[in-house]
Amino acid sequence: MSGEYKIPIGPLVALGGAVLLLVSLFLDWYEALTGWTVFEIVDLVLVGLALWTIVSLAGGFGMVRGTSNPVAALIGALVTLVIVVTQVINDPPAVAGGGGPDKDVGIWLALGGAGLMVAGALLATTQISLAVEARRRDAAEPGSPEPKDAERDEPTVPLGRRKPPERPPGGPERP
């Protein structure tokens, strides 16, 4: 039972960023205002771009038959990053004005999620992956010495069928 498995890092990072972006829309972007209540259409665009990135890279996980399209994912992730950065720099109309509410945790999580989406799409474009090799534990590695007798596992005996310990010769008799 040995074989090499490749875990695609790019789609995994992009998936994490897209999920973080989606979760951030439910959190406060500005004091007591979530991403859903602050925006008119930008929230729907961000959801669409997050889903586009996920679907574009789904082939890298082997979840769908089609191949992944890292270039489309990269374009979607870059557009997402631009939208979130513009919202960080320039407040949306719902909160604009002097002395408006301060930025809250949701907007920063969205910025981090968009950044992860871009990083994951870049990693998917370069096809970087982790290689994991699965092998049996008892298989000896080439060039390694054989285990000593004391290191070998002894066969286990079910608890109900164990032999009673032998009495030492000349020991006291039990009634």
Write structural notes for this entry:
With 175 residues, the chain is mainly alpha-helical. The protein has five helices and four strands, in the order E-H-E-E-H-H-H-H-E. It has helices spanning 9-24, 35-38, 42-61, 70-89, 105-126; strands at 3-8, 28-30, 33-34, 129-134. Helix 1 runs antiparallel to helix 3, helix 1 runs antiparallel to helix 5 and helix 4 (70-89) runs antiparallel to helix 5. It is elongated and about 100 Å long. The mean pLDDT is 81.
Biggest sheet layout: 2 strands, antiparallel
Distance between the termini: 54 Å
Gyration radius from CA atoms, angstroms? 29 Å
Structural class: mainly alpha
The general outline is: elongated
| Poorly predicted runs of 5 or more residues | none
Distinct helical segment count: 5
Order of helices and strands: EHEEHHHHE
Strand content: 5-15%
Nearest-integer average pLDDT: 81
Strand order of the largest sheet: 1-4
How much helix, percentage-wise, in residues?
A: 40-55%
The number of distinct β-strands equals: 4
Write a short abstract of this structure.
47% of the residues lie in helices and 10% in strands.
